[in-house]
Amino acid sequence: MSGFVGQGRWCEWARIPVPPPRRRRPRSAGTSVALAAALSLSVSTPSPRCEPVEPPAEAPEGVDYEAEAPDSLGSGFVEIGMGAVGSSGQAPRRRRRVRFSSDSLGGAVRDGAGDPLAGSSIEGQTKRGAFGLGRFTPRWGRGIATGTPLPPWSRTALEPRERPAYRARSGDGMWYGGNRGALRYGGHYGRFARRDVGAMNAGLGAVGVALFGDRAGVRQASVWLDGTSTRSELVAERSGRWRAEVAAERGVGQGQVAGMVRAGSAAFRSMVEPQGGVPAHALAAAVHGPAGPLEVDAIGAVWRFRPGLAGARAAFQVEGTLKANARFAAGFEEQQGVRRSSSTTASGSTSERLGGFRHGLWGEWSGASGGVRLALRHEAWGEGRFARRSVRIVTTARVETTAPAEVRLRVTHTVFRVRRGESLFVPEAEADRLVLRVLSGAGDRTRVEIAVPTAGGRLAATLALSTSASGPQPPRWTIEWARRARLARDT
Questions:
Q1: pLDDT on residue 126
Q2: Which residues contact 184 (CB under 8 A, 6 or more apart)?
Q3: Helix or strand or coil: residue 155?
Q4: What gap in Å lies between CA 186 and CA 384, rounded to an integer?
């Protein structure tokens, strides 16, 4: 089984929002920004709904996973970035990226040897709609037809308007969407998972329909409802296989209650992501709200991939304020069964993932004083009640500060002990991506991040030092300079 660091508020540091640019002078076209939470090293307001970040089901097991950050670029801006990543004893690998956005045209290009996010895309506006060429991720309804359904054990899956912390896997092709009055229409053609897939869709109000097809003659149809507090989707194919899901959220007093139901054929597979091993049947519910001076968050879910292969999760967390600049959170969780129907290893082989019982306990504290912010977190997971017979123990400390001239520094130290056969995912935010670093065995990891304004942009660098039972590991570093500026306008 795999585990993760990032329950409760801790994974707020892994999110990558892009603050708006700041003008230097009214007459200047140049702008300077703090590129991301990972670079600016600021801590956002904590959210008790924060869910653990883990790789999607189709990701290979036992290796780091990199995903594009779901940030956006405002209209009328261009952003450039260049940098490198390397490790001791290896040649540095360069990374370059350019993004621009205007009223009618936008695009992005990423380049770098071995970069899993390398690619390009162009998006534009027409008189009646929009089009795109290159990398894109189709999504509507609950993501069943497009291969992006969220796991039922995630709080995000229960909230109709929420989105995952990172974008789903993209394909390469073209798309177009437009409207005539209240009628929406569109289509796309692209290559996903070594498969050419085409689709046409139409919608009216909150209701939409789509037809999928590929060169092998596989056909699927999707119908979805995209409401404010309720979202649902039904997908069926010519062979008779189907999958359906509905999620709803309601306010109750000062709190909220959410639920999700999924049903369908165990053999159903999305044409866009056929390897997405999500459960065929699921039932989940969550509650969030105040309880006196505390904020309470609870979730319960059961799921089944097929007969004999199922799982369950129950989690409870409380969060509160100790004083103006200090907060705490504590919780527990119980897991049973499996979270994947199969595991793809780094070598490409596939094997059944065994499940079991896991009980986890965690607590964290954060506070600030005199421009320095400190955070501490400890969590333990075991095969017995109250985390006995431990399989994963993780302790993390983080300190961050802002020096003169807007120089920002953050140091994170993690000590872990992971039993053989288990994996631990640690989220690390970089300038333009979220990296889920996989750790195993026993050891510690120290990550130093620094961001310095320079040359009209921002220079960010990280250095990661790791030690395992076999001794020190090769240091890993990244460095990137990026700048965002306003596009010139004709006067």
A1: 87
A2: 177, 178, 201, 202, 203, 204, 208
A3: helix
A4: 52
In this model, does residue 96 exceed pLDDT 90?
A: yes
**Is 424 a domain residue?**
yes
Mean pLDDT of 103-110: 90
Q: How many CB atoms lie within 10 A of CB 184?
A: 16
What CATH number did the domain enclosing 460 receive?
2.40.160
- Among candidates 143, 137, 136, which has minimal Cα distance to 224? 143
Instruction: For strands 22-23 and 476-486, give the pairing.
Output: unpaired
Tally of CA atoms within 13 A in the half-sphere of 304 that contains its CB: 9
- SS3 state at 156: helix
Beta bridge partners of 210: 201, 222
Contact between 110 and 80 under an 8 Å Cβ cutoff? The reply is no
Digit-coded pLDDT (tens) for 225-284: 988 889 999 999 988 999 999 999 999 988 999 999 999 998 898 887 776 678 999 999
Nearest to 85 by CA among 110, 112, 119: 112
- CB neighbours (10 Å) of residue 358? 21
Range of the domain at 428: 2-98+242-486
Whether the Cβ atoms of residue 142 and residue 283 lie closer than 8 Å to each other: no
Query: Letter for the amino acid at 210?
Result: A
Alpha helix (H) ranges present in 207-355? none
CB neighbour list of residue 320: distance below 8 Å, 6 or more residues apart: 293, 294, 295, 327, 328, 329
- Whether residue 225 lies inside any domain: the answer is no
Residue pLDDT, tens place only, 357-379: 889 999 999 999 888 999 999 99
Q: Is residue 10 part of a domain?
A: yes
Query: In this predicted structure, what is the pLDDT of residue 272?
Result: 79
Residue 250 parent element (H or E): strand 242-252
d(CA 83, CA 333): 40
Tens digit of each residue's pLDDT (9 = 90 or more) over 54-74: 777 667 777 888 888 767 788
Q: Is residue 183 part of a domain?
A: no
- Strand 2-4's sheet: what is its strand order? 2-4, 423-429, 433-439, 65-68
Residues 6+ apart with CB under 8 A from 127: none
Distance CA 353, CA 358 (A): 15
Structure tokens at 375: 């955070």
Measured between alpha carbons, how far is 31 from 298 in angstroms, rounded to an integer? 43
Q: What domain count does the chain have?
A: 1
Asked if residue 177 lies in contact with residue 194, where contact means CB atoms within 8 angstroms, the answer is: no
Kindly state the tokens that stand for 406.
């807007």
Query: 346, 6, 336: which is closest to 155 by C-alpha?
Result: 6
